[in-house]
Design goal:
alpha/beta; globular
Amino acid sequence: MKILDIGCGPKISKYKSNNPKDKVIGLDKFHVSGADVIADLECPLPFKDNSFDVVNASHVLEHIENFFELLSEIYRILKPNGTLKIKAPYFSSPHAFTNPTHKRFFTYTTFEFFEEKYEENQYCNGKFYKIINRKLNFSFNKKYASLNKIINPLVNRFPTIYQHLFSYIIPCDEIIVEMKPIK
């Protein structure tokens, strides 16, 4: 598989595949040890159409000003059966607000707006995604990872109830979403 890790950061945080045959390409705006390609995500991506099986976007989309254009570009470079893997701070997490470079926040339902079934979808110029997996993650901090075994199953069993009633009382750290382009 050919995998693009956008906003890859240093080599230690670059996406790691379980399959040694996979080719992982790190893209970052800055010259860091994990970057194979230097490019600005606010501009068109320097890849041909249908180039990647997976695009990984871990804690990068919240920094993007031209969010809709980037999702359109990712759609363009994903193969027809490709997967977009997203991790982003959940809207009620303290991590969503502490970084001054964050431009937007994400909820459990944010990415539903990019599905074809959403009636008013005009965000990506007719390019639609289908959500194939989505979950809330209570803690990405290894210090508190044991809480994930207790809280994550409950939160993810009733995500909309959690979001409406409890998200500010017990905030999750991140949302994890996997989407496929509809081509």
